[in-house]
Amino acid sequence: MGTLDPGEAGQFSVKFLTDCAAPVGATHCSEAHIYPDTLCPTGQPWSGAEVSVEGRCENDTIFLSIKNTGSAPNAQVLDYVVVEDVLMMTSGTFNLVNNQSMSLAPISGNGATYRLQAQQEPGYPYSGMPSVSVEGCGGLNPGMVTVFPTENSNPAIAIYCRESINSYDPNDKQAFPKGYGTAHYIRPGTPLEYQIRFQNTGNDTAFTVRLVDTLSAWLDPTTLRPGASSHAYTWDLNGAGVLTFLYENILLADSIVDEPGSHGFVKFTINHQADAPLETVIENTAEIYFDFNEAIVTNTTFHRLGENFVTVGLWQPEQPRYAVSVSPNPFSDAAILEVKGLHQNTPLHLQVFDLQGKLQLEMDSDGTIFQLKKGGLPTGVYLFKIDQKGKSVGAGKLIIQDQ
């Protein structure tokens, strides 16, 4: 791109075809890294540690790891979680010196998508949490990668993931991340990236294309960042929150004459209003105008703000014969946790974590039964892990409710 002055923009494009053997629904990701990428000081105290994560599939086995790629040790113990599709599988902590890595226990691929998300060093110049997803190991359960954010928090790096599909409406609106479940839950503070796609399906060249997007009142227009596009454009945002992308003299061929050349797109990112309460629904729709024709109205995307919406299975044993019963679960005052299926009566060790991976309760038992009490724990969902002689027996979920 050469040298760019402040406020100056440059553009390049890359086109590729997916492998014909790739299954429909598989996720294809691309990453762009622009240099220089020197970290900019923010004035916040920062140790110099930098957390990164990696994941790969080898011979139907998933390998996940966390590394401190910074110039200093982690200043404190940090948390990580592993999500299987949309269920929290496990969680833990790490504290690494610079250039040290920590490998998690290998996972036998079963077709599920596994996502590792780690806490970043406090004070790190960029927000967000490092994450990596491994899809298609030992099978394929499509559509899980883009449920959660895939974008790197570093502004010098852009990651774009998209699922392969068959036929589709050529004029549509997409939003990333898609969000969790049918409610499309996202955590507060998650930036949204929108993409508007358009195609000239008429019978003549389109000279002007205009995209009009009336932003939801729950979106913060001051955080708007226009992004990549298939063609050069100008844009405008008026005081009523109406965002317009204008393609003058685009000369967009019609699909009969030049099908590949009849497509276009534009992307932009935006944050929601900082004071938006939980359960707020954020909707977005766009209108596409080709020359003087009537508007083509896209589908409506939506997201809902929420917390602690990622759930875990009630019990995930390390061996099929291991079983655990928690009665009652949910509980409001006390519960009995019993482990069954063990060959020996070696003492057991129980750890209970909150959904951020912070240890809340720890206890040992000479037998197979734990007497649980709510004590000072607030209501909510908790994860528990049981070990025997340092080896995992399994993990599961506890729910504490009000009386």
What's the CATH superfamily of the largest domain, by name?
A: Immunoglobulins
Shape: elongated
Within the CATH hierarchy, at the fold level, what is the topology of the largest domain?
A: Immunoglobulin-like
The ordered string of helix (H) and strand (E) elements is EEEEEEEEEEEEEEEEEEEEEEEEEEEEEE
What does this structure look like?
The chain has 403 residues and is mostly beta strands. 0% of the residues lie in helices and 46% in strands. It has no helices and 30 strands. The strands form 8 sheets. Strands 16-17-14-20-21 form a 5-stranded antiparallel sheet, with no helix packed on it. It has a 5-stranded antiparallel sheet with strand order 23-30-29-26-27, with no helix packed on it. The N and C termini lie far apart (63 Å). The mean pLDDT is 88.
Mind sketching the topology for me?
Blueprint: E1 27-33, E2 51-58, E3 61-68, E4 78-84, E5 87-94, E6 101-103, E7 107-108, E8 114-118, E9 131-134, E10 157-163, E11 172-176, E12 185-186, E13 192-199, E14 206-214, E15 219-229, E16 234-237, E17 242-252, E18 263-272, E19 281-284, E20 286-290, E21 296-297, E22 301-305, E23 315-317, E24 323-327, E25 334-340, E26 348-353, E27 359-365, E28 369-373, E29 380-388, E30 391-400
